[in-house]
Amino acid sequence: MATGIKDRVAILSMGCSRFGERWDVGQEELMAEAYLEALGGSGIDPSMIEAAWYSSHYDDIGAGKAGLPMAQALRLPAIGVTRVENFCAGGTEAFRGAVYAVASGAVDIALAVGVEKLKDTGFAGLPPASRGTFAPMYLPTHTNPGNFSQLARAYGAHHGVSRDDLKRAMAHTSMKSHFNAVKNKNAHLRKAITIEQAVNAPLVADPLGLYDCCPVSDGAACAIVTTPEIARSLGKSAPVLVKAIQLVASNGWEVQQSDWNGAYVHTARIAARRAYAEAGITDPRSQLSFAELHDCFSITEIVTLEDIGLSDEGTAWKRMRDGAFDVDGEMPCQVDGGLKCFGHPVGASGLRMLYECWLQLTGQAGERQLGAPSLALTHNLGGAPAQNVCSITIVGAA
């Protein structure tokens, strides 16, 4: 019987480019920036990489399809490169491919890279998705702020939270991430804001204001994975191990019947439950040290905290205002600044979250370093609350 991948794969090294308006470089240079950092800390020669996974969502913007853009940009040693795309969860999907390849015994060392060059598109938000057969049938008029404003309204209505109370909770969420990002040289936005600034910012999609929305950015992130035994043989005496990766894609349940109330993300609850079981976690609030959540909008972070069991239903908005998820709170979230301040280069975000976990768990986070974290979680969400791909990854010490 399958038992999952707990402790079968180690993160040998990671890298992350500076995120932001990177008019100075192309997609190839962003990938190289992240890859060279990871390679430099890995202790391996590039010829030892046996397989690679590449995440990029908007394939026609500066990159192209297939695995060629990554293979050529990084001059990989004539190996298989698989391009993956799973909406905004693509970065974690690339990591999952590399981890599964090592866990299966097919290869000893694998590479995962996520990248996106969005500023060149000229859009203030994400560019329109390819129409295909999916969007015209289910999402003919949707916008991302519109989708998540509906999540906020449903959450407030279901739990009896007034608009003003929810606005202040969302404002605290954004204030927290901006505060954390000031200490991160790779973040796009490195300026602190006040709760009043966030509350009084221009509306984008009521109740979401300007500071409730993450920006559009360019960026790349990278991971090199191997077995724990090889990692130790390369001098990594206490490598970060993968405890669990679970990914769930909506099967249509949310929109095809009336049981879903729109106040939570169904897939997040399933993915979290399975990830905790795979990692052997029975009490995530006491066992996890910190979390990196997919805060594309501030309301997403609040709802996710309940979906993954880090707060009781209907309480996260209040605990957020009380500081429970601040960097010095009970469960620090978005210690690096999150999507809110890194922006969201779609194919890269999942790996960027893991990069912060790896830095913290190996004591390399500099002035952002938490005390002595032992277990961290990332939540990577692609799509809208009603239809999405959600992944939960848990990494930690041996």
UniProtKB/TrEMBL annotation:
Gene3D superfamilies: 3.40.47.10. Residues 20-227 form the Thiolase N-terminal domain. GO terms for molecular function: acetyl-CoA C-acyltransferase activity. Residues 258-392 form the Thiolase C-terminal domain. It comes from the Bacteria. InterPro entries: Thiolase, Thiolase-like, Thiolase_C_2, Thiolase_N. Signal peptide: none annotated. NCBIfam families: PRK06157.1. PANTHER family: ACETYL-COA C-ACETYLTRANSFERASE, NON-SPECIFIC LIPID-TRANSFER PROTEIN-LIKE 2. This is Acetyl-CoA acetyltransferase. It comes from Xanthobacter dioxanivorans. The lineage of its organism: Bacteria, Pseudomonadati, Pseudomonadota, Alphaproteobacteria, Hyphomicrobiales.
